[in-house]
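thought: fold this chain, then report.
action: predict
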Amino acid sequence: MKTNDEGDVNCVGCELCAKICPCDCITVVPYEDEKGNRRPKVFDIDLARCLYCGLCEDACPADAIKLGQEYEVATTTTEALVVHLEDLIAAPRKAEEGAGTVIPASLAKDGSGKTIAQANVKGYDWWQLLKRQK
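observation:
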């Protein structure tokens, strides 16, 4: 969970992450703080159910959710797989720009069948390729 310079969470408690989650593993209970800002009173993620698909990160209008490239909250008990807001704020900040993208192979075959290295290979947001039925 990302925070601003003042230490407040970026999350505005809109619940879009919970609504878009295909495995229903995110619980958000919003409240209004003393300044009139909407914030999460409860923000829990059940990592035993999470697919790590990145849809929550993409849906977040406040850029509060950032998935990392590594499993940062490993545990040895199933009870600890439900991660709370405090745990997410205290988690190491390993998520970098480019998290949540698919990195294509940097090798390709040329016309003669030889394997060659490609230059300037960039990732892409795979969920933008999903076709939604109307």
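thought: worth noting. Helices lie at 16-20, 55-59, 85-90.
final: tokens above.
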